[in-house]
Specification:
Order of helices and strands: EHEHEEHEHEEHEHHHHHH
Number of domains: 2
Low-confidence stretches: none
Number of strands: 8
Largest sheet: 8 strands, mixed
Strand content: 5-15%
CATH class of the largest domain: Alpha Beta
Shape: elongated
Strand order of the largest sheet: 3-2-1-4-5-6-7-8
Structural class: alpha/beta
Helix content: 40-55%
Radius of gyration: 21 Å
CATH architecture of the largest domain: 3-Layer(aba) Sandwich
Mean pLDDT: 94
């Protein structure tokens, strides 16, 4: 569906760059990508690195049938008002703005506008992201298929109802920070027990990476795989017992709860 379709970005930051890389890898030509970015150095970088089209004026993206809003929610009102009278009726708006409901975007425009909201996460920068999408009141099934095609180029993509987007934010949106904290703690524990820092870090990172791949490729439940490596009276069960005493799983669940609650507050 993307072949020959021009795609505009408003904002050229890290997530926009990740999507551009994915689109180019998926066969979209650089000449079909237009990025509106206020910073000259960033525009120059995008042209030099990816050979895409760039502009300093958001309004230039009105000529593209798909416009991806890769901006901060704080500037959304100003940007959208500037586009309100310019976008053709058949434009699809794809928003990756955290905490901004589809209805808030739709309300900016005098005529019905098709909106799909996306919550990506930072591993998209290495083509390993986890994204969730939801549709606005005017978005079509075809729009969902197209947006899924875009975001599967940088990882996985699932559709949920908009009422679940705050939970997505709390889990996968904020989740990389939880994993990074765990990796840091795992490496610190190795150092505490005598390992050199570089060795401890490499082992911790690869352990998490390999475990995630094992779960993904086998499709088995985490508990089933965990049982396979937990020998009676062994080292692993001793470590797991310590995690249970520290309420490890409850703490992770509380972190997702807290992030989800904060996302709901920001969306009001």
């Amino acid at each position: 569906m993307l072949q020959g379709k021009k795609i505009g970005f408003i904002g050229g930051g890290n997530m926009a760059e990740a999507l551009i890389r994915g689109l180019l890898a998926g066969g979209v030509t650089a000449s079909d990508i237009l990025v509106a970015e206020p910073l000259l150095k960033k525009r120059e970088y995008l042209v030099d690195r990816y050979h895409v089209q760039v502009t300093a004026d958001n309004r230039d993206t009105a000529v593209t049938p798909v416009v991806i809003l890769a901006i901060k929610p704080q500037v959304a009102a100003k940007v959208l008002v500037g586009l309100a009278d310019l976008l053709p009726d058949d434009t699809l708006l794809v928003s990756i703005m955290a905490g901004t409901p589809c209805a808030a975007i739709e309300a900016t425009f005098p005529n019905p506008v098709r909106v799909v909201r996306v919550m990506p996460n930072t591993p998209a920068l290495v083509m390993a992201g986890a994204s969730a999408i939801c549709r606005g009141s005017h978005a079509t099934d075809e729009d969902i298929v197209l947006v899924k095609e875009i975001f599967t180029m940088t990882g996985t993509c699932s559709e949920v109802g908009e009422g679940l987007m705050d939970a997505v934010t709390g889990l996968s949106g904020s989740g990389p920070a939880y994993v990074m904290t765990f990796v840091e703690a795992l490496a610190d524990a190795g150092v505490k027990n005598g390992l050199p820092r570089d060795v401890a870090s490499e082992l911790a990172i690869q352990t998490v990476l390999g475990t995630a791949r094992l779960l993904q490729e086998t499709g088995e439940h985490p508990a089933a795989l965990r049982d396979k490596v937990t020998s009676p009276g062994g080292t692993t069960i001793a470590g797991l017992h310590a995690l249970e005493k520290g309420a490890f799983r409850a703490t992770v669940m509380n972190a997702v709860d807290a992030a989800t609650a904060r996302a709901k507050e920001l969306g009001k």
